[in-house]
Amino acid sequence: MREQSLLGQQLGNYRLMRLLGRGAFAEVYLGEHLHLGIQAAIKVLHTDLMDDEQIELFRSEARLVAHLVHPHIVQVLEFGVEHSIPFLVMRYAPGGTLRQLHPKGSRVFLPTIVAYVKQVASALQYAHDEHLIHRDVKPENMLIGSNHEILLSDFGIALVAQTSRQRSLQEVAGTAIYMAPEQFRGDARTASDQYALGVVVYEWLCGARPFKGSFSEIASQHLFMPPPPLHERLPDIAPAVEQVVFKALAKDPSQRFGSVWEFAVAFEQVSVGYHTDSLTLPMQGPPAPLLSDGRAQHPASGQPALVAQSTSTPPSAGEISSPVTEMSTQKKRRKRPRSRRALLAGFVLTGLAGAGIAAGMLGKLPSLHVPMPNLSFSTTPTPRPTPTPSPASRPSPAPTPTVPVQGTTLYTYHGHHDIIEAAVWSPDGKRIASASKDRTVQVWDAADGGNVFIYTGHSDIVDAVAWSPDGKRIASASLDKTVRVWDATDGGNVFIYTGHTNKVATAIWSPDGKRIASGGNDRTIQVWSSVSGALAFQCIGHSDKVWALAWSPDGTRIASASADKTVKVWDATNGRNIFTYNGHIGIVDSVAWSPDGTRIASAGYDDNTVQVWDAANGGHPFIYRGHSHTVWWAAWSPDSRRIASASEDRTVRVWDATDGGHLYTYGQSVALYFVAWSPDGTRIVSGGNDTTVQIWQAV
Asked: For 233-239, what is the mean pLDDT?
């Protein structure tokens, strides 16, 4: 490994600006073109190339890889050797890797897996038809592009790295988890990439790899032991889905699908409702023998096609989605919380956010101390999705931006250090303010988490946060018994409201921005001036804590949700109780007024329901029972047509506000405490019992 850092130095036409990651045989830097100012990822191999034969071998192999031009392959823009240092210049992917998005132990929703598989298989099939085998398919090598598309990285880089260096078995233990049995014998072929993708799918489905142990133990299991049945780890899995995955994981390459694309098509079919009896699985001939020079020789493809047809084009970039559904030990159901959500024990540590080209690009396939050909070839192309060609000498054009599909995770914010209690949108939809058990409110760009400002004025958990209608100020409510009103730009305090005698759980602005209503453990709702803090009046009538408040869009009424099992509606001019809604059987922890002013939605802690009722008199209730556990929050879409509800059952469910018809479920690995629609109704922010906040496509 090179002792001196290359930061600030020049390789080719690029200056190395920042180290993105370091691995067993290479470092990846963020580079900037000296003349054009564009950024790229520069992979610098640790090993120096000292003789002409090594240099020429590196160049010939890198040249083959650089000719791969495909919408789902990280393009090698150029390569070279300077001062004996070999390097490759690659397209910069800012979104990190699928390993970072779905850490080890994660489970991924089936539709999301289908979208991933089709894009990765599209890239692999293209490479196979170009006579290249990837050899190192794993989540660490699946990058997320700027348009949420999947980009497969490091085609042939493992072999490039072996030009002058043999790696130890220990260095490749991670890669071995995904290696096909024949690779351990030095007999890699196109079907080996299919097997590796099958292992990835297995892991995403059930949250566990099929094999584990030392390198030798993993190798032995791949060679001789069947994977544990998926239905033992995932009882609800459809038999047809398991059958397709296990066909891709066949020990004998000839028993797998005829191509990686056929695997992707079959997997999509059974995942969207096809059953085993409607699927003709392609048969294959004998394993491909090796040519004398070590290349893979494949027979002509004559396999029958799948009965049910599927699109031959890869999914659009917008289909890249899925929340992390990490499987982790969950705490037992909690008793009554002392604050609405503040004292939940435990949280799941999240992976580091992607810094661009991820560290996962750095660990590649070794020689395994058996003969490995420099590159492997297939002599007969397999039918494949055809990408739009472009000259090999030019960078691959970025995919046309599309609207992400519903449920696509657009951004995950990692700035907090403890459980997130709430998050809200700025009125213009450009910024997010998030409140946390870490006693801060953090204000950040909704698009990418940039321009972070951290407000640290509270001395205890911040339970609620609200943006003024004009977007200039923020009110935050805390267990320190205060509501603080401060400048949304720089955190400058306007004033501190100290009227409550106990913990404050909620604070909201009036529609005209002139008043604030707050409530909490002292059982009162206090309405006061947002400019001076002068108390206008109090609403007295609840017999237990006030968890949430909602102001009617016309500013004339206030609704309050309480631990006393009621929602009360008050006159916003004098505090008079207009009526009380008694539909819940336990604590009511959320209340929301429809934007059209006609209905109210309230969420129950004990009855696991969201109840929608007439805002005028509490009549005509509709009860939504889609959640299996406590519902912590409910929020109306701006057009009043849909409701999103966040639950202890680890889902946000989007449903029709008229009849409860299910529209979409967004899941995570932890209890979800809050949800809010963007002002334009296209995005949702949600989060809960961990340190992250997710922004995702709502429609």
From this structure: 89
